[in-house]
Amino acid sequence: MKRNGMCPICFVKRFFNVPSKVSEVYPADFYGNGAALTPPMGWSSWNTFRNRIDENLIYDTAVAMKEKGLVDAGYHFVNIDDNWVDNARDDEGRIQADKLTFPNGIPALVEKVNAMGISLGVYSSNGTATCEDLTASLYHEWTDAYTFAKWGVEYFKYDFCHNIPLSEYAPLVYAVTISKNGIGRTYDCKEAELSGLARYMKKKDFDGKYVSGLDRREGAMTFDNIEVEEDGVYNVTVHIVKHGQYEKCLMLEANGIEREVLIFPSQKRFNMTAKFTVSMHLKKGKNTLKLFNPIGTRADSAMLQYVNMGRQLKKATEKVARDAGKPEKPITFSICEWGFNQPYKWGRYAGNLWRTTPDIRPIWPWIKILYNHTVKLYKYAGVGGWNDPDMLEVGNGKLTFEQNRSHFALWCMMCAPLILGNDLRNISDDVLKIVKNHDLIAINQDALGVPAKRVIKGTVDVLIKPLADGSVAVCAFNKGGKKKYNLNLKKVLSDEYARCKKTENFVATNLWDKSETTTNGVLSVSINKHDSAVFIVR
Fold this sequence. Notes:
CATH superfamily of the largest domain: Aldolase class I
Largest sheet: 8 strands, parallel
Shape: globular
Number of helices: 13
Helix content: 10-25%
Radius of gyration: 25 Å
Strand content: 25-35%
Number of domains: 3
Distance between the termini: 47 Å
Mean pLDDT: 93
Strand order of the largest sheet: 18-17-16-4-3-2-1-19
């Protein structure tokens, strides 16, 4: 399958090229929507079923999750990947499910799976179409976010196919209006302080001045005299002079804390002026509002598009809860731009998890590549925001029993989301036993939220992961043939990352066979080809 118009080989080659550097123009704080405090657990339709999905498959999978004890084990999401949407929006511009494969609609499906203690997830793309060339969400962020929230969706995967980068250029701004409940004040651009390449201009056919040169982070205009009578959410309206049929981008920064992105789409009809409004928090008294275009690289564009969608999702769930007078149901936001634009550097500001790699395949060498890349990014993940090396292929393809075990164990150690990708209706007992391993799941879901660090790299990799109760998870992953390996616990636990206070009398519990060993240093283990030995050490 081609992704974004590229053959699979070209797609992978692009991943391993050095990405464009992302600028440090982030929101001021982490995403913080209250979701995904531990790595999400569930199932997705893509790996096994691709475009062969319908509402019966999704419901039957939810039933299988419940009956086979996966829900009790912690798997709470059933996620519908690509191919669920209709190829056109409804008459009011809203995204809608395919009428043939999902005739009863997504809200009805949400209700049915919720009754089993399961949450439903959906998919779209940050582009003009999805990877399967269906309706996507670029330029429809608020409409789709609000629709998903109204439906009761609790997981959203946002892909990167057919993406169009944001413009490096800003609109021509002539005023901003701050208002609340229909009452407000307009600040003329002449009241702003200009910096960088920003400058005042005047059009012959426009009665007044406007500001140009806010492009590519090279110019800014700042209002430091915006005064409001009380703390609260205000409408910030940007008035612009239309200038050709080109998309423009502008970031608004309030008091150096809150940032919102405005996208000004190109229009066939030329208008001399236009205005666009966002909601922002302002404080009683004087406020500072800064306007500039933050796009310097392709990575900046991707970052801000995902930041924008994440903000719309938060606003949508808040509005739905407020309007209904019910507790908010946050949507776990999965960023899926395939690791091209260093999402590990900005993902925690935009959403709850971010893909670190291209798509996974049930091929052992490829799984190892995804592991080798993601394990190095441990410093970037933590509570509420997770590195995502993609869904689990446990039970798929021709993976051996040992490869299935290692695949699952490594994802647990790295605090990766545990999103199953096999046919749960026909899951084998061996695979079910692996993915229901209580102790490994507990490592993944540990409240401390610290991903594993690789402390030894070689034929046998050794990973350590500190846990909330003071113990340490230790994984020895054998990338070669069967061998006896002397695991030096004293050495690996001396690394500061382990947070281990003990220097002797280690008690190691094997999480596969539940055996227990006491040692003052070296633990001798026999590890089959491609298998892993995982221990809790106290």
